[in-house]
TrEMBL record:
Catalysis performed (reactions): (R)-pantoate + NADP(+) = 2-dehydropantoate + NADPH + H(+)
Keyword Oxidoreductase carried by entry: yes
Biological role: Catalyzes the NADPH-dependent reduction of ketopantoate into pantoic acid.
Annotated keywords: NADP, Oxidoreductase, Pantothenate biosynthesis
Species of provenance: Pseudohalioglobus sediminis
EC number(s) from the headed UniProt entry: 1.1.1.169
Domain Ketopantoate reductase C-terminal intervals: 181-299
Domain (Ketopantoate reductase N-terminal) ranges: 9-153
Family statement: Belongs to the ketopantoate reductase family.
Enzyme class: oxidoreductase
MF GO annotations: 2-dehydropantoate 2-reductase activity; NADP binding
GO process annotations (BP): pantothenate biosynthetic process
Protein name according to UniProt: 2-dehydropantoate 2-reductase
Length: 302
């Protein structure tokens, strides 16, 4: 049995990843409070995680973000475009000792938050856990992956990291170079997500369709050039193999970007392909297909 943790985690974002990690932290003995935009119907709620026919549950507290009360450990699991607004709405809960863990796809939001919350302790959570929402607070844990946490400023591993490894997170690591993990994940997302969103297809079709397979190859070539210019030749060398492996392993999955488009939500394209294209421009690398996909997916927002 795991010992009860002394840490109290407040969580912004009750989507698939927010619920997955909330249930995990609660099961590890942490106090967990979901922060809501409005007044919740009840001060507590039960999160259900379904995996291979087995359901695991955890009861968590629920509170309005607008209420007073300090957040010592804050997990932000919203979509990347929503992070700044979500944090602004609970800024009164954040002080100099708050640790803010950001679990979102893409890159670029850290720079925004450093301007918005100067001096605050920011951490990244980069995960390849597969999860999708079945209903409010009910999530399917569709695939096990690796979760890496680390400080964006190179701070030492904090005591609260002990809450994370074990249980359902069988591969959870402290990563002193979490920025590299973020870039590596972004490169794979750039090669997969926009194409699935535009062609309304599951990941596997990027490997089975000759036309889409060629587009993936072109994207990988462009992304590899940006990686090399950024000093990440290791990422460039492994990119095609990693992308092909992800496509095969998640063949039946619908990417988060495809799900957003299907639901009429704003996508994270500006923090995925948009970030890559901005980096390419800064480094003097031409990325015509990535620019084209950025424009086409952005146009879907209306």
């Amino acid at each position: 049995m795991r010992l009860v943790s002394k840490h109290h985690w407040h969580v912004l974002g009750a989507g698939a990843i927010g619920c997955l990690f909330s249930q995990h932290l609660a099961s590890a003995g942490c106090a967990v409070t979901l922060l809501t935009r409005g007044q919740p119907q009840s001060p507590c709620a039960r999160i259900r995680i379904q995996e291979n026919g087995v359901t695991r549950e955890a009861e968590v507290a629920v509170a309005p973000g607008a209420d007073r009360g300090r957040a010592a450990q804050l997990l932000v699991a919203t979509k990347a475009p929503d992070i700044a607004g979500a944090l602004a709405s609970i800024e009164h809960r954040i002080d100099a000792e708050t640790d803010i863990v950001l679990a979102a796809n893409g890159m670029g939001f850290v720079e925004q938050l450093k301007d918005m919350l100067p001096g605050k302790r920011l951490y990244l959570c980069i995960t390849t856990e597969g999860a999708h929402r079945l209903a409010p607070l009910h999530v399917c844990h569709a695939g096990r992956g690796v979760t890496r946490l680390g400080s964006v400023d190179g701070l030492a591993q904090p005591s609260w990291f002990a809450d994370w490894p074990g249980g359902e997170l069988q591969q959870c690591l402290w990563d002193a170079h979490v920025d590299i993990a973020a870039w590596d994940k972004l490169t794979v997302n750039c090669a997969i997500n926009p194409l699935t969103a535009l062609h309304q297809c599951r990941n596997g079709e990027l490997g089975s369709s000759p036309i889409l397979r060629r587009k993936v190859a072109v994207l990988c070539d462009e992304i590899a050039e940006v990686s090399i210019a950024r000093g990440r030749s290791e990422t460039a060398e492994a990119l095609r193999t990693r992308v092909q492996a992800v496509i095969a392993a998640t063949a039946n999955n619908r990417s988060s970007m495809l799900q957003d488009v299907a639901a009429g939500r704003v996508t994270e394209i500006d923090y995925i392909t948009g970030y890559l294209v901005r980096e390419a421009k800064r480094l003097g690398v031409n990325t015509p297909l990535n620019r084209e996909l950025l424009s086409e997916v952005s146009a879907l927002h209306g």
